[in-house]
Amino acid sequence: MRVSTVIAIYFLIWWIVLFAVLPWGVHRQDEGGDIPAGTDPGAPALPRIAAKLMWTTAVASVIFGLLYLAYVYRLVSLDDLTAWFGPRR
Asked: CA neighbours within 13 Å on the CB side: how many for 79?
């Protein structure tokens, strides 16, 4: 597999995981009662973006590592995928 392909696949996995991780631990401003002027009451009180980016990288790396091992050791073939997800006869 080419390096550009590996980077593209990792980026796609990372981006999808980011959207799964963003809601973790979110507390809205109106839940705490402190709403700064000019902000949406539903906005996160503490977004903790740096922690979420680290979690995203860790989870995406594990998922990518598992998929890469499955690819390298040919644990799943194309025939297996078509049998699992292909049209029913």
From this structure: 1
Asked whether 41 and 28 are in contact (CB, 8 A), the reply is yes
If the chain, 89 residues long, is cut into consecutive pieces of 10 residues, what is the mean pLDDT of each piece? 94 98 90 83 90 98 97 89 82
pLDDT at 89: 65
Decide: 47 and 23 in contact? Cβ < 8 Å.
no
At residue 83, φ and ψ (nearest 5 deg) are -70, -40
What is the spatial distance between Cα 2 and Cα 6, in angstroms, rounded to a whole number? 6
Q: What is the pLDDT of residue 41?
A: 87
- Burial pattern 32-47, b for ≥16 Cβ within 10 A else e, equals eeeeeeeeeeeeebee
Quote the CA–CA distance of 35 and 33 in Å, as a whole number: 6
Whole-angstrom distance, CA of residue 88 vs CA of residue 21: 35
